[in-house]
Amino acid sequence: MSEEVVAKVLSGTELSKETKSDLKKQTAALAEHFNGFKAHLVIVQVGGRDDSNVYIRQKIKSAAEVGVEASHVQYPKTITQNELLSEINKYNSDSSVHGIIVQMPLDCIENIDSHLITNAVSPEKDVDGLNIVNEGRVAIGDLTGLIPCTPNGVIQLIKRSGIEISGTRAVVLGRSKIVGAPVASLLLWHNATVTICHSKTKDIENEVSKADILVVAIGKPEFVHGSWIKPGAVVIDCGINSLPDSSKKSGYRLVGDVHYASTSLRASAITPVPGGVGPMTVAMLLSNTVQAATKVANIIYKTQWNLDILPLKLQRPVPSDIEIARSQEPKNIMVLAKEIGLNESEVILYGNKKAKICISTLDRLKNIKNGKYIVVTGITPTSFGEGKSTTTVGLVQALAAHSKKNTIACLRQPSQGPTFGIKGGAAGGGYSQVIPMEDFNLHLTGDIHAVTAANNLMAAQIDARMFHEATQKDQALYDRLVPTVNGVRKFSPIQLNRLKRLGIDKTDPSTLTAEEITSFSRLNIDPDTISWNRVMDTNDRFLRKITIGQSPTEKNHTRQTCFDISVASEIMAILALAKDASDLKERLSHIVVAQDKNMCHFTTSKDVTADDLGMTGAMAVLLKDAINPTLMQTLEGTPVLVHAGPFANIAHGASSIVADLLASKLVGPDGFVVTEAGFGSDIGMEKFFNIKTRYSGLLPSTIVLVCTVRALRMHGGGAINPNVSVTSVEKEEALIKGVANLQKHISNSVKFGVPVVVAINAMKADTESEWKIVRDASLQAGAMDAVVSTHWENGGSGAIKLAETVIKASQQPQEFKFLYDLNMPLQLKIETIAKEMYGAQSVEFNENVLTKLNTYESKGYGKLPVCVAKTALSLSGDPNLKGVPTNFTLPIVDVYVSAGAGFIVVIAGEISKMPGLSTRPSIYDIDLNTETGEIIGLF
Fold it and tell me: In what residue span(s) does the Tetrahydrofolate dehydrogenase/cyclohydrolase catalytic domain sit (predicted)?
């Protein structure tokens, strides 16, 4: 031939550059659109083969070029198959990882099945495309998943040639699962007629000569000669082989499976070796990683859930709460978890109707903007309660099931004290409940028991430590505190913390002086200053004061103490206010349990902390599962997070910050989180804003203030007993007087600069004229609106108008402000709350309280918020004063520091931290049907 036609060179190097340029734009768009989101690839290597290291460095460099984070994880040659599988599973479960590749071949001593390893990589993260699931998808023509990299690169190079694949005749030499077989499948689903040749194929040369497209991946150097090629064919050479070549500095040259010189004279297009398929393999690996990350991002940041709503079967008259709850079969909790965007690895199942959500989920969702934050509070309640929890549940059912807004309710876990006492549970009521309500109101997932265990372990350690210090000399005590184990004597990490606080800069136990040993070993707890009590989750009045240490083994080391109810424990408040496990542990370490007796006065004594007692780590271990919120659902199948249950008068009375943070991310910027503040605005809401909001950083969009005509009538001096006969005129007269209580609570609410919506919890005896009186009074006091809600009898559909009003209110501009500045003196903070929230004329402090307040300020606690413990049955400190008391003095009888929780507790009036059982508690009505296993008479 006088003129030779040279084939077009299909440069994988050039195409990969173009591909990586496009990927760089995609990752930049991901980061911009999804608030800094970044694709993450993990490269797993066993051993350290030099050739593997070269490939890995190339992948890491290419990943950096396109904006993909690449982590190289190297394991020793000695790793076993089970160990490697376990490590891969960790990355499968890690939500921050979007792509996983295992570098082959495995450089290992143990016999490891490479196919088992590649199949262990989650199909969603298998960016090599080697998992049998991804291979199977390609085989059946599903090309929406992660396609094997080299085969995908081959297809892109063929498309680069300009040939139309559809209708062509394609021949693939090689049937390996990595290249040959998937290439053949891809060509088939691109509508080529495909022939696969392999080592057993007869007359391969004849088959090759028919090919319009030839893909060679047979592993034999220069196996295919140009004379075999159909003129004008497209040839893709996937091979790379090393041949001796003395002319090269390296002593070898790289060739493909095709004889390039002769084939390039007959083919219309051909890939070089190197620089052909190889670079495209890496490009497709990165493309798969970006594809997998984009899918995850779209799931995380999707704006609308697709909830399967459970229809209600409304009955008249409305049955009991437990009958309603049992008539509705909850969704499988894993189904609900997936509906709201949770990964399976983030859900810890407790049966199929409740589950804990790992707080590590917050890391995955950290870049999502928070949803709207709604807090539900109430007026001064009657002993019956006014339905805050019921309204909260009804509102979220209306928002999620009827208004189609991503919405989560965040509720406290109820204590068994009121459940078996008088008040009952807190799952809502009527057709606005959390189900299963028996689980919700009883043990749930054991968080209260974990708090109880941690609290009582600390109490046991306090008394044990005082006993051992009293019965041992310094050196003996020190030797037991820092024993020699297997010939080694060392301080534990928490003991090193104590040394540091004491100013002892030593780590070798043998180097402490006698004086340092005494200082380290003796806490010298003053028993009269111990503020840490034992707890139990039962109303038991006879534990309000007890004597401990009466056994002869305690050698007359007795003292008086008491039990509190578990939800009054500072540990419960800490659980509710901690942002994560580290914050929880830090707060636990700061708990102050007593003062030492080295100094003669309270004003100069030193705090004895949980860390001094060596308790921090042990308590954290007991609470390691309790830090995770519990996922449940409403009667209509909408999500609820149940977490923590601090007492609303002793502590701050709100569910956990962790649950609120998690819910805010799950619902997304257009969604809603509805949470509840215990009791009325004077107690629960004030603490919610001044304590919880300060620590969470979440600012509420709307306040929902719940009231009932029944309660407002009581505040006006009217009867609430349905058996008392009064005229409608008398009822309205009492209501007109009683709405002043509602107006005071509205006034309390607007002080924080947040829109207020009054929710009138409708009851059967209410009239339209009564509702109008309440609405007019609400608007006059500054509420944005007052809405009648029938959620108790109608579920979410009865709260649609309330939901619409809340949505409208949440869109209003807000100027949130705290009630007081943390830099104010403690006494002034207390007076501000008493006068602004309760309407007190003055506050009375006894000398002991003033001394303590001064001491707390001198110890650095002055900048903490205050948590006033007072009756919930009146705006004043006297439970008998209804309506809006004025000209009263609020007596402050005691104060103490909850340093771990991060507030000063102020006791106003007679407040018990251990409720008692009434003459006829709910116990009489509760039973177990031993044949069916059903609980009877819970509500």
Answer: 10-128
Give dist(CA 15, CA 158) in Å, integer: 11
What kind and span of H or E run contains 892? strand 889-898
**pLDDT at position 831, please?**
97
How far, in whole angstroms, is CA 78 from its chain's centroid?
A: 37
| Active-site residue, selected from the candidate residues 103, 156, 413, 433 | 103
Dihedral of alpha carbons 788, 791, 797, 799, sign: positive
Which pair of structure tokens corresponds to residue 622?
Answer: 């007991």
How far apart are alpha carbons 789 and 760 in whole angstroms? 6
Is the bond leading into 483 cis (omega within 30 degrees of zero)?
no
Distances (CA, A) of 355 to 25, 297, 378, 622: 40, 24, 30, 18
- Helix 132-139 × helix 180-189 angle, to 10°: 40
Distance CA 237, CA 272 (A): 7
What are the start-end ranges of the E strands in 694-752? 702-707
Q: Nearest Cα to 331, choosing from 305, 356, 351?
A: 351
* The pLDDT value given to residue 264: 93
User: Counting Cβ atoms within 10 Å, is residue 452 exposed (0-12), middle (13-18) or buried (19+)?
Assistant: buried
59 assigned to active site = yes
Residue 506 identity: K
Tell me whether residue 692 is one of the annotated catalytic residues: no
pLDDT of 819: 96
Active-site annotation holds for 744: no
Given the residues 128, 321, 537, 682, select the one marked as catalytic.
Answer: 128
Residue 345 DSSP one-character state: G
Residue 445: DSSP 8-state: T
Q: Do the Cβ atoms of 412 and 441 come closer than 8 Å?
A: no
Both tokens of residue 265?
A: 């004279």
What is the reported pLDDT for 3? 46
- Reduced to 3 states (helix: H, G, I; strand: E, B; else coil), residue 727 is coil
Nearest alpha-carbon partner for 108 in 128, 141, 83, 131:
83
**Which residue do the tokens 């109430």 mark?**
378
What backbone torsions phi and psi does residue 153 show, to the nearest 5 degrees? Answer: -60, -40
Retrieve residue 900's tokens.
């771990």
Question: Among candidates 141, 153, 114, which has minimal Cα distance to 130?
Answer: 114
pLDDT of residue 422: 63
DSSP 192-260: -EEEEE-TT-S-HHHHHTT-SEEEE----TT-B-GGGSPTT-EEEE---EEEE-TTSTTSEEEE-SB-H
pLDDT value at position 805?
Answer: 98
Task: Return d(Cα 165, Cα 140) in angstroms, integer.
Answer: 18
State the greatest distance between any 2 C-alpha atoms of the chain, in Å, as a whole number: 119
Contact residues for 607 (Cβ-Cβ < 8 A; gap 6+): 592, 594, 595, 859, 899
Predicted structure pTM score: 0.86
Amino acid 232 reads G
Q: Which of 20, 26, 45, 59 is catalytic?
A: 59
Distance CA 680, CA 678 (A): 7
SS (H, E, C) 848-881: HHHHHHHHHHHCCCCCCCEEEECCCCCCCCCCCC
In 718-819, where do the E strands start and end?
A: 756-761, 785-789
Tell me what pLDDT residue 939 has.
62
Sign of the dihedral defined by the CA atoms of residues 566, 567, 569, 575, in that order: positive
Cα distance between residue 792 and residue 391, in whole Å: 8
**pLDDT block averages, 10 residues each, the chain of length 939:** 70 95 96 90 94 91 96 96 95 92 93 94 95 93 93 95 95 93 96 94 94 95 95 94 83 90 95 93 96 90 90 94 91 97 93 96 90 97 88 98 97 82 73 92 91 97 96 95 94 94 94 95 95 92 91 92 93 96 97 83 70 96 97 98 88 94 96 94 95 96 96 90 75 94 96 97 94 97 97 98 98 92 97 97 96 95 96 92 94 95 93 80 74 73
